[in-house]
Write a structure and sequence with these properties.
With about 70 residues, the chain is an alpha+beta fold. The protein has a single domain, classed as Macrophage Migration Inhibitory Factor. It has a two-stranded parallel ribbon. It is elongated, with a radius of gyration of 17 Å. One of its GO terms (molecular function) is isomerase activity.
Length: about 70
């Protein structure tokens, strides 16, 4: 029984996009590993950007700094 736990930041991902991701992950597991779709479980967890960090910063702050650097002087 495949179990996929996909964690993404909460950035306005639509229901349609999530549906597509679930379908494509399921199709890949069926095609590559020969796992029946009815055995496949996929969970998408959306994490607030204030709760996801890397490079010593929250994702919110990291993206803000990137945006600030991209602004014309």
């Amino acid at each position: 029984m495949p179990f996929v736990n996909l964690k993404i930041t909460r950035d306005g991902v639509t229901r349609e996009q999530k549906t597509q991701v679930i379908a494509e992950f399921t199709e890949t597991l069926e095609r590559v590993l020969k796992k029946p779709p009815e055995w496949t479980h996929i969970v998408i967890e959306e994490i607030d950007t204030d709760d996801w960090g890397f490079a010593g910063l929250t994702t919110t702050e990291y993206r803000k700094r990137l945006a600030d650097r991209a602004k014309p002087a």
